[in-house]
Amino acid sequence: MATEVDAWFAEYVNPMKDVVQAVRQVMLSDPRIDETIKWKSPTFMYKGNLASFNPRSKSHVSLMFHTGAAIPGNHEILEGGGDTARYATFLSLEDVVTKTPDLVAVIDAWCRSRDA
């Protein structure tokens, strides 16, 4: 059954679309994660907003973790030094493969912290 996110992707024209789809697959590989459209972009959730794509970039994929500073652990994939948000950047399909273990660890850390 097609979802609103599938409909969004059907209309999404971007040279990084395959990379965005690959990151989406990693995010949804955890059965606790759900997705919806918020802020005109796919957003991943588990007991609150976890992360959203910045769909405008044509040179890389940016996944913003809304409260990434609060995700427990030291995750090299997360960039940024502000009080709240963190970002993960993916440059290619190969980059997604390389960063998948850390992305999976970030997802798990988020879910565990929300369950605590």
Report on the structure:
The protein is α+β, with helices and mostly antiparallel strands and 116 residues long. It has a single domain (4-115), classed as Aspartate Aminotransferase, domain 1. Helix content is 37%, strand content 22%. It is built from three helices and five strands, in the order ααβββββα. The protein has helices spanning 4-11, 17-28, 93-115, and strands spanning 34-38, 41-45, 49-54, 61-65, 86-90. It has a five-stranded antiparallel β-sheet with strand order 1-2-3-4-5, covered by helices on one side. α2 (17-28) packs parallel to α3 (93-115). The radius of gyration is 13 Å and the shape is globular. The model has no long low-confidence stretch (mean pLDDT 93).
Brief descriptors of the model:
5-stranded antiparallel β-sheet; about 20% strand; Aspartate Aminotransferase, domain 1; alpha+beta; about 35% helix; about 120 residues
